[in-house]
Amino acid sequence: MHNLTEFLARYKHWFLFVALEVLSMVLLFRFNDYQGSVWFTSANYVAGLAYEASSKVTSYLTMGEVNERLTKRNLELEHQVRELSSQLYDKTRDSTFLRGQYRFLSKFRLIQAKVVSNSLDRPDNFITINKGTWDGVRKDMGVACGNGVVGIVYMAGIHYAVVIPVLNSKSNISCSIQGRDYFGYLHWNGGATDMAYLDDVPRHAKFKLGDRIVTSGYSSVFPAGVLVGKIKHVYNSEDGLSYRLAIELSTDFGNLRDVCVIDDASIREQRQVIKAAQDSIKPIEDQNANQGE
């Protein structure tokens, strides 16, 4: 306390000076219109700068949350567009009103994903997406985009998955001619990235150039009706017993950014039944092999 009293006594003149200065400033700006307006304008300017800086900092800190809300809202809007497109199609039955393939997929759970790597110049190309088992992606799930079929999940990690696209020599997708019961298997033999071939189409099949090719639904990967492309050329098979159709792919693999993984409960059940059947047949085959020895 003694030190405080000594300090105040030593600098009392300065404290008195500061107090008088503050009092004079208050009186100046309080009772003089011009000086008051200058003070008001300057104070507002400084306060505005402070608020702007604070707003930028707050906006930066909450950017992740804002992006998450925007992504969720985009998914909701995409779902609404799919529902409206489906209703419009049911009313008009005019496919020209449809935009993209999501009408066929609206009843399934779609796992939205981004392409993080994509190759085009190899016989066996692969695509990597930024979703994995943590998001519900599993091996052998179908992958599509707004324009059509992309490929099949080959391997799934926790946060990433590798997809075998149509542009892979090992890709083998069951497809059919839209509106008809004829089907074949889609293959890619290298070369142009916008062309693939549908093999084993029966000789009695009726179709024309420009007809659409869609997934047949006969496999345990894709539901029926997902667009693949359209017929560009017709060839005979090597044995002459079937047709080989050149298909112009609807998916632009060179500009592929957003995809969705199709999580279909009925397809999962189908795979489980097939696996159970294979597991039940294997002991019988092993038993027959042992008896043969």
Can you put this structure into words, describing what you see?
With 293 residues, the chain is of the alpha+beta class. Helix content is 41%, strand content 26%. The protein is built from 6 helices and 12 strands. A 6-stranded antiparallel β-barrel has the order 1-2-5-4-3-12. Strands 6-7-8-11-10-9 form a 6-stranded antiparallel β-barrel. Mean pLDDT is 77; it is low at 92-100.
Enumerate the spans where pLDDT stays under 50 for 5 or more consecutive residues.
92-100
How much helix is in the residues? Answer: 40-55%
Count of discrete alpha- or pi-helical segments spanning 4 or more residues: 6
Distance between the termini: 107 Å
On the 0 to 100 scale, the average pLDDT is: 77
What is the spatial order of strands in the main beta sheet?
Answer: 1-2-5-4-3-12
Task: Describe how the helices and strands are arranged.
Blueprint: H1 2-10, H2 12-31, H3 33-61, H4 63-92, H5 102-105, E1 109-118, E2 127-129, E3 142-145, E4 148-156, E5 161-165, E6 173-177, E7 183-187, E8 195-202, E9 212-215, E10 227-236, E11 242-249, E12 258-263, H6 265-292
Antiparallel strand pairs: 1-2, 1-12, 2-5, 3-4, 3-12, 4-5, 6-7, 6-9, 7-8, 8-11, 9-10, 10-11
